[in-house]
Amino acid sequence: MNLTPPRPSCLGEGRPFAKLMAANRGEIATRIMRAGSELGCGTVGIYSHEDRFTQHRYKADQAFELNTDKSPVAAYLDIDTIVDLCVQHGVQAVHPGYGFLSENAGFAQKLEENGIKFVGPTVDNLNTFGDKTSAKELAIKAGVPVIVGSDDAFATPAQAEAWINSSPITYPVIVKAAMGGGGRGIRIVPTAEDLDQNFRLASNEALNAFGDGRCFIEKYVDQPRHIEVQILGDGTGNVIHLYDRDCSVQRRHQKVIETAPATGLPRDTRENMFQDSKRLLSMNKYRNAGTVEFLVDKEGNHYFMEVNPRVQVGSPAMIGSPFRLRLFLTAYILGRAHDH
């Protein structure tokens, strides 16, 4: 598997795409545009009315204002407007960055239907890993250790309570949103009396953030380490890892500090996480950069949490200069999208 970012002279007439859109804002949009420019692509930006003076608008070769009738966040989630802009202005590829529409299979599907390349995972990758329950099912099939929990997601506290009462699982448990990430839609439930309130809090937060309030239940692992493995896949089953990072320092389930590599991990635990990550993503023929997240308990046992099928804010913590690696990952993904 070739890890060298493709250079303009290698890509047909000198560039992977004639025109590339960064369907995002801020730092990640600027990085996408710089990577596109270095590969010879024309770049297109989008911006909400509130972002009309921000840097990413002016770093693009062209920039277009989004729907002014929508809120600043909703504007960047407006699939129909973004796809229409792509069609109207000859955009050949869209890089979603992270957040917003980066894990939205419907967005990727609509782009593909209009002959526009989604620079990221395949629609099947997004459907599989965007839903934590289906990701867990694949992990079990791949022989990756998982935390004991529900196979299905629940819409109400009553459904969750019924499952807990009929299963061998005991309190404390943790409620997790079925969709999305970023620490949202997560609540620890110490006792049965705490379930109703905490389920509703997690569900409402998930519904507001991701449009889906379903949650599943897992056994709570006390004081675990949160270890992530960075991977790259070429879409044909070839997957490599770029080692690990420790994201255990968190506030309200949001990562505060990320360090690479994770220190003090047993050698076997680290190697097993690498191999499990590669095997899991290879089964789904994963295409893109991505992250496999694990919990590691006090005995050194590791358990699969989820896959983030996108570039992450923390990806540059893995190796070398943060900016250089961010640029490398973005350029690599652009080249693989062009190849496919």
Describe this entry's structure for a reader.
With 340 residues, the protein is α/β, with parallel strands linked by helices. It has 3 domains: 8-119, Rossmann fold; 127-145 and 222-309, D-amino Acid Aminotransferase, Chain A, domain 1 (2-Layer Sandwich), CATH 3.30.470; 157-219, ATP-grasp fold, A domain (Dna Ligase, domain 1, 2-Layer Sandwich), CATH 3.30.1490. It is built from 11 helices and 13 strands. It has helices at residues 26-38, 55-59, 72-76, 79-88, 105-113, 123-130, 132-141, 157-166, 195-210, 267-283, 322-339; strands at 19-22, 42-47, 62-65, 93-95, 117-118, 173-177, 186-189, 215-219, 225-234, 239-251, 254-259, 287-296, 302-308. It has a 5-stranded parallel sheet with strand order 3-2-1-4-5, with helices on both faces. α5 (105-113) links the parallel β4 and β5. The longest helix is centred in the C-terminal third of the chain and has 18 residues, at 322-339. It is globular, with a radius of gyration of 20 Å.
